[in-house]
Write a structure and sequence with these properties.
CATH architecture of chain B: 3-Layer(aba) Sandwich
Number of domains of chain A: 1
Oligomer: heterodimer
Shape of chain B: globular
Largest sheet of chain B: 5 strands, parallel
Structural class of chain A: mainly alpha
Order of helices and strands of chain B: EEEHEEHEHHHEHEE
Strand content of chain B: 15-25%
Strand order of the largest sheet of chain B: 6-7-8-3-9
Largest sheet of chain A: none
Radius of gyration of chain B: 17 Å
Distance between the termini of chain A: 26 Å
Chain lengths: 221, 217
C-alpha cells in the first residue's frame, strides 16, 4: 500500500502546486450551471423541474475536463513506465490517481452543489439527496473516466475521443443520480436510487483500476 | 566464481512487424556489467525495454536469480531499476520530492539520508529544494540517475540504463561511473546502452547489430 499512499500524496501535492488548473473543473461546474437561469429565464417553476438533471449533467461534463490529463502528463514524461515497473501492482497506482482526481474535482463539486441548487430553485426536499448522490456517485465518474483516459493515452486529439468514450458510460450514474433527487422532491423514498448509485461506484472501484492499468500497459508496449 | 544471477536466453523482439533482433544471449554474475552498443535504430532501447518487462518478447526469456521474470515479476521488480530515455520527472515537484516519490514507489525504506546521499552522488545536493522544471537537460538526466542510487537494495540488484550519459558533461559522467562502480562492488549488475564514452571496467560488449536478421522479416 506504500505505492498507493505515495502516489495519492504526490498527485494531491501536484494539484495544490498547480492550483488553478485543478480547480478548473469546479469553476466550470459553477459557471456552466449559472448560465441556465440566464438562458432559460427566471421562471422558478421551470428551473425547479429541470434542476436535478441540469446539475448532474454539468457534474458529468466538469469531471471530464480534468480527466484527459489524468495519465497524459505521466505518459509523456516517462513516469508511467516507472509506475508500471514498480513492485506494487499498477492497478493500485491507478486507483490512487483516481482517488486524487475525485478529491480534487468530485468532492468540491458535491460541496458546491447547495449553491447550484439555490440558483436553480431546487426544492429544499431534494438538497440532502442531491449532495448524498453526488458524494456517492462522484467516485464512479472518476473511475469510469480513468478507463477512458487510459485508452486514449498517446492518441492525438485524445480529449475529444475521450469525451465520446466516457459520456455513454456515464449514463447509468446520471439516471440513478437525477432519479434519486427527483424521487426525494416528489416525496418518495430515494434510498433505492442511492443504493444503486453506491453499487455503481463499488463495481467501478473493483473493475475500473484494473481495466485502466491493462490499457496503460498496452499503450506502453 | 559466482553463479550468474541475471540471464538472457535466446531473446527476440519484434517492433512494427519487423524482427529487431533475435537470439540474444547474456549471462552476468553479481558485480557484472554489459554495455549494449549498436547503431541508431538497431534496437538498444527495445532490448532494454524487453529486459525491463515493458515489452513482451517475441521469444526467449529473462531470468533473475533463476526465476522467469515474466512469470513471477515481483522479486525482479523489487531488485530492478530502469532509467529510460524519458526522465520521468514531475515538473511541479521539487528535486527532492521527485526522488522521494520514486524511492517510495520502488519499495525502498523511508530514509532521508539515502536520498541526500543519492543527490550528492550525482552532484545535485544543493538543488534539492528547486522545482524540477528549472533543471537543465543534464541536471534532469542526473536526477533520473539518482533514482536507482536512492532506492538501492543492499544485496545488489539490476540497473537497466538507457543512454545514461546523454546530455552529461565530463565531470558528471565521472560521477555516474563512480556510482555504477560502487553499485557493482556491492554485487549489483548493470546493463547500459550507450553510444557515448562510458567506462565500465570489465564490462561485456553486447552489439545488438550482430543479432539482426539478414533480411527484414
Amino acid at each position: 500500500m506504500r505505492g498507493f499512499t505515495a502516489t495519492l500524496r504526490r498527485d494531491l501535492l501536484i494539484a495544490r502546486r498547480e492550483g488553478g488548473e485543478a480547480l478548473l473543473a469546479v469553476i466550470f461546474f459553477v459557471l456552466g450551471t449559472v448560465l441556465f437561469p440566464l438562458g432559460v429565464g427566471p421562471e422558478a417553476k421551470l428551473l425547479a423541474a429541470v434542476a436535478a438533471g441540469l446539475i448532474w449533467v454539468m457534474a458529468l461534463l466538469a469531471s471530464l475536463l480534468a480527466l484527459d490529463r489524468l495519465f497524459q502528463a505521466d505518459w509523456r514524461d516517462g513516469a508511467l513506465e516507472l509506475m508500471a515497473l514498480a513492485p506494487e501492482p499498477l492497478t493500485l497506482v491507478v486507483a490512487a490517481k483516481c482517488l486524487a482526481h475525485w478529491l480534487v474535482t468530485g468532492l468540491p463539486m458535491a460541496l458546491a452543489a447547495p449553491l447550484m441548487a439555490l440558483l436553480l430553485n431546487l426544492p429544499a426536499a431534494g438538497w440532502p439527496t442531491l449532495i448524498a448522490a453526488l458524494l456517492l456517485g462522484g467516485p464512479a465518474l472518476s473511475l469510469i473516466g480513468a478507463v477512458c483516459a487510459a485508452l486514449i493515452v498517446g492518441a492525438r486529439r485524445g480529449g475529444v475521443l475521450m469525451t465520446l468514450l466516457a459520456l455513454p458510460l456515464y449514463i447509468p450514474t446520471l439516471i440513478f443520480g437525477a432519479g434519486a433527487v427527483q424521487a426525494a422532491i416528489g416525496g418518495y423514498d430515494a434510498s433505492g436510487h442511492l443504493a444503486l448509485m453506491a453499487a455503481t461506484t463499488l463495481a467501478s472501484a473493483a473493475l475500473c483500476p484494473w481495466a485502466a492499468a491493462a490499457a496503460l500497459r498496452q499503450a506502453m508496449e | 566464481m559466482t553463479a550468474p544471477a541475471f540471464v538472457i536466453e535466446d531473446l527476440a523482439c519484434r517492433r512494427g512487424g519487423r524482427v529487431l533482433f533475435q537470439g540474444v544471449e547474456l549471462e552476468l554474475a553479481p558485480g557484472g556489467a554489459a554495455l549494449v552498443v549498436g547503431r541508431n535504430g538497431a534496437g538498444k532501447s527495445s532490448l532494454l525495454r524487453v529486459v525491463a518487462g515493458l515489452i513482451p518478447p517475441l521469444a526467449g526469456r529473462v531470468l533473475w536469480r533463476g526465476v522467469d521474470t515474466r512469470r513471477t515479476p515481483e522479486s525482479y521488480r523489487e531488485a530492478m531499476r530502469y532509467v529510460g530515455h524519458a526522465d520521468g520527472l514531475q515538473t511541479a515537484l521539487t528535486v527532492a520530492e521527485n526522488l522521494a516519490y520514486w524511492a517510495r514507489l520502488s519499495g525502498a525504506p523511508d530514509d532521508p539520508d539515502a536520498l541526500d546521499r543519492a543527490l550528492a552522488a550525482v552532484g545535485l545536493a544543493e538543488l534539492a529544494a528547486l522545482p524540477a522544471r528549472l533543471l537543465s537537460a543534464g541536471q534532469r538526466r542526473r536526477l533520473a540517475l539518482a533514482r536507482p542510487i536512492a532506492s538501492r537494495a543492499d544485496d545488489g540488484g539490476v540497473w537497466l540504463l538507457d543512454e545514461p550519459t546523454v546530455a552529461l558533461d565530463r565531470p558528471s559522467i565521472a560521477l555516474i561511473e563512480a556510482a555504477i562502480a560502487e553499485f557493482r562492488a556491492d554485487g549489483g549488475i548493470v546493463l547500459a546502452s550507450t553510444n557515448a564514452p562510458l567506462t565500465l571496467p570489465g564490462a561485456v560488449r553486447l552489439d545488438v547489430s550482430e543479432f539482426q536478421l539478414a533480411t527484414a522479416g
